[in-house]
Specification:
133 residues, alpha/beta, six-stranded mixed β-sheet, 6 strands
């Protein structure tokens, strides 16, 4: 495991567990910091950020932060953010499952499946093109 930081190892463990629970997961590694981003169900669920530092400006709902001891959740610019330390991975996974179940109940499985099957990166590029016009 030489050369792989702790954030990547934890991201791979979470990815494995969520894959077993039926999630589609894409992993992105930050080039400037030790942050790893897990994009769940092609963006149909919220993004998980795994890092060694807190960044309140990020748009990720789920933040897994090394040695975090602070507020469990807060609202920043109208968006709910939840914070966990590395010992609370089980709670993070259960919160993600609950969030997905709530979305499926609210919108219906067919609509959720359509959203999940769209490519996350294509959705983002379309949004940027619409904003530029």
């Amino acid at each position: 495991m030489i050369g792989i930081n702790k954030e990547k190892r934890i991201a791979r463990k979470i990815k494995k567990v969520l894959n077993e629970k039926g999630f589609i997961i894409k992993m992105q590694v930050s080039k400037k910091s030790n942050s790893v981003y897990l994009i769940l169900d092609n963006g149909a669920c919220e993004i998980v950020r795994i890092s060694d530092h807190k960044n309140p400006k990020t748009k990720c709902k789920y933040n897994l932060i090394k040695n975090y001891h602070g507020k469990r959740q807060e609202i920043y610019n109208g968006q709910l953010k939840k914070y966990y330390n590395y010992k609370n991975i089980g709670k993070l996974i259960s919160d993600i499952e609950i969030d997905r179940s709530d979305k499926i109940i609210k919108h219906g499985y067919n609509k959720y499946r359509i959203e999940r099957n769209q490519d996350y990166f294509k959705k983002r590029s379309i949004n940027y093109k619409n904003q530029a016009a």
